[in-house]
Structure of Phosphoglycerate dehydrogenase-like enzyme:
Amino acid sequence: MPRRPVAVFAIAPWAFGGVFPADLLARLRQLVDIDPTTTFTSFDGPAATAALAEAEILITGWGCPRIDAAVLSAAPRLRALVHAAGTVKAHVDPVVFESGVVVSSAAEANAVPVADYTIAMLVLGAKQVFSRARRYAAATAGTPPDWLAGDGTGLHHCTVGVVGASRIGRHVLRRLRRFDVEVLLYDPYVNAAEAARLGAEPVGLDDLCRRSHLVTVHAPALPETRHMLDARRLDLLPENAVVVNTARGSLIDTQALTRACATGRISAILDVTDPEPLPPGHPLLAMPNVLVTPHLAGAQGRELRRLGDFAVAEVDRLLNGAPLVGRVEPEHLPHIA
Ligand SMILES: NC(=O)c1ccc[n+]([C@@H]2O[C@H](COP(=O)([O-])OP(=O)(O)OC[C@H]3O[C@@H](n4cnc5c(N)ncnc54)[C@H](O)[C@@H]3O)[C@@H](O)[C@H]2O)c1
């Protein structure tokens, strides 16, 4: 058997087994020489130093220590960093990109469950399922059915505003093609022709807010996206609009959202909040028209192996000289998650 490149795991043990189940580890071990029983959450100490000295590929994941100049000098053979999770911004120092080490992320694989969650929430949110279920649970026996003809609920022929044709936003846009809805898109990086290819009408964010029955937020947290849905824009939303946020809490002004939802004029479904988690007793947690989930839209449980699958496929591509699907280019960092 030809010499396999040496790879090293740096991923938290709590995530490791889910991301790399035994069969996936076996596949990976056909490609690289890797110790499947050791994963580093710190690069301090003799074992990490010895592993880094040989490492050609670092396979990272949640809980990975920061990869910086010190790690690079301890790992002179390193040529690729394959991240079996989403963003690399938190743990990959810019010096890594400057060094020529190739960086790949499994954000594309993590986008799939977030898009699935989003579509589920758009369907259920449009029907006001969560608030109606709460009212039903609280009602006494014999309460008449809680639905009306012409009450403005339901997905049929409504307008969905997508904020950000990001990886997740694009998965959502693709899934929305199956529904008979009008789709608006706000994304300053997407031109009209591309928006049309994505099945959406490109609009400004104010226009999107004015026209959308459902707004779903998929932009990255950046200085320019902070509070992009502020009090003024929330006021533009039509009566009974539903805001779904699976992106980052900072994109919506929490105080303004709390005030808007308290009036009952709009509803919200929030997988992310600012602050996160919300403090116990926060008004949003008790509102019947607000559903808050604990940042669970991304890969969880069985979905974790999708990240490992993606990472193993990236290693395969790397070793075969094929372009990496999840390659992170340094020039994209200022406007990606
Ligand atoms: N809830 C979860 O579990 C979960 C999981 C993964 C990602 N996320 C979040 O979802 C969001 C999308 O993630 P991703 O990996 O698809 O992002 P991404 O890195 O693909 O997003 C980059 C794209 O966003 C768009 N964009 C950039 N600036 C924008 C702006 N000002 N307005 C509108 N669009 C803009 C551009 O098209 C850009 O290419 C991020 O906020 C991310 O943190 C949440």
Notes: The chain has a mean pLDDT of 96. The two ends are 40 Å apart (CA to CA).
